[in-house]
Amino acid sequence: MPDFAATPLSPPVPPPDLIPARMLNEYAYCPRLCYLEWVQQEWDDNEWTLDGTYQHRRVNRPGGQLPEPENLEEQPPDTIHARSLSLSAAQAGLIATMDLIEAESGEVIPVDYKRGAIPDNAEQSWEPERVQLAAQIIILRENGYACSRGILYYTQSKRRVEIPASEALIQRTLSLAEELRAALVNGIPPPLVDSPKCPGCSLVGICLPDETGYAATHPAEPADEDRVRRLYPARDDAVPLYVQEQGAYVGKSGEEITVKKQGELLATVRLLELSHVCLYGSVQISTQAVQELLKRSVPLLYFSYGGWFHGLCTGFPHKNVELRRRQYRASENAEALEIARVLVKNKIQNGRTLLRRNGEGDIAEALNELRRVETQAEQAASLESLLGFEGNAGRIYFEHFSAMLKPRAGEEAAAAFDFQTRNRRPPRDPVNALLSLAYSLLVKDLTVTLLTVGMDPYLGFYHQPRYGRPALALDLMEPFRPLIADSAVITAINTGVVQAGDFLHAAGSVALKPDARKRFILAYERRMDTLITHPVFNYRVSYRRILEVQARLLARYLTGEIPHPPEFVTR
Length: 571
Prior knowledge:
This protein is α/β, with parallel strands linked by helices. It has helices at 3-6, 21-29, 31-39, 47-55, 127-142, 167-186, 204-207, 209-217, 287-295, 321-331, 335-358, 364-378, 383-399, 411-416, 430-453, 471-477, 480-494, 514-528, 543-558; strands spanning 19-20, 82-89, 94-104, 107-114, 149-154, 159-164, 239-243, 249-253, 256-261, 264-270, 274-280, 284-285, 300-303, 309-313, 503-506, 509-512, 531-533, 540-542. It folds into three domains: 3-186, Alpha-Beta Complex (Lambda Exonuclease, Chain A), CATH 3.90.320.10; 239-313, CATH 3.100.10.20; 334-558, Up-down Bundle (Four Helix Bundle (Hemerythrin (Met), subunit A)), CATH 1.20.120.920. The strands form five sheets. Strands 1, 2, 3, 4, 5 and 6 form a six-stranded mixed β-sheet that branches. A hairpin with a 5-residue loop joins strand 13 (300-303) and strand 14 (309-313). Helix 11 (335-358) packs parallel to helix 17 and helix 15 (430-453) packs across helix 17 (480-494). The chain is elongated. It starts with a helix and ends in a 13-residue tail after the last helix.
């Protein structure tokens, strides 16, 4: 565990006075799930959570009344059906919103709705469900109501299961509440080990149980094929929307985002399918569309007409303050250098691999030099010396970058893609224009990823803070520059996606024409969706997924769950 993560945050966050009954359910099911959902405020839906919300649609609407305990026997039993009723119990330290409360013979009976079918076990229920129901019984009793049992209603079976309020169940529930309070102070619990619960959990892509467990014990050893399960889809269903048509107007219609120009409908995209929205140049967007994107935590990003990343608009920041405090502490600690060394070393390694695979001609000496600089970077004593090693590696790499480009037929094409050296702000030749655009797209994607994970993209460990610069996104981009951005550029040139006539030349700068930029962005997105084998976990996922996995593993390092910063070196 890194030293900065072993030191408790000061002051520690005290546990709340009242524990929600639903969180007791989560804690009984998986302590780590409870911590992620309640303390770090992580959430993601899957088909089961969405179905559960749908099945609760009726009982989630408050209705009916629950009489005071002393007036309970005066009410006809069939008139008491209080729905979505919130009650708390200060002495027990519990609070619950109860789906339904019925009455019978002077007693109240909480009814808790559950999606799915009745479990095939002796109790016809699972312990987390019984614990949640028991918490409701404890709350009702403390409020003066007689309550000796509860009911679990399974919507798929359309049947009720009666749960007696046994002393053992009540004590188990109170004991779990005390355990939960202690866990909140002690920090995030470890992930479950090879648990069958994980595949159905909506937070599995956030928790990364197998990846975290493996990285904690095998930091540099590639896993066997079955050691780390891929518990989430290889590709993300949500994708970005790019709006580059100048004068276009982005609006909202129902559950869709629309793009129009002079009244003509250019495109529609379902809101559920959006990861973020990118606006280039003179593109307008309605207030209704902005509000809906903010409500759904879909970032809205602004670019110049030429592709310069200006900034973004998001909803409220991620609620995981604990992670950002760890990030701020690490940025001023010796571990910042350790993280930076790994990122730069991986960048050099991946650049060397790309050159070895694709370079033509005499590149042997360049490969040897990159190997030597890689060793120097791994042993760098300061950020300043590391910056020098990275610069040296970049010089060697870009001196031989043209060896990865296929010779072009024709004088104009040969001159257009005759790459000599890296330049920017502004790029002065077509290859550099493509590289700058690719890096802008990649830093955009990593900025969105870091916001999703809960880190501050503007405070890095290698790149130093500068006004308006997403330093941490630039940090995490280093290992992926060759693999995603450079590879997309090389492929676009070598396959003819972009041609010599696709560029505008003005005042010593070069930029892509609008149609060519659209084609190149599609090529970049295809690269992001490419499935590759993760070099450590040995499962196949897209680059888009890998960016999120690496960012979340960095978060696990910052919180002390894994001992070394995560690496990514292609095979």
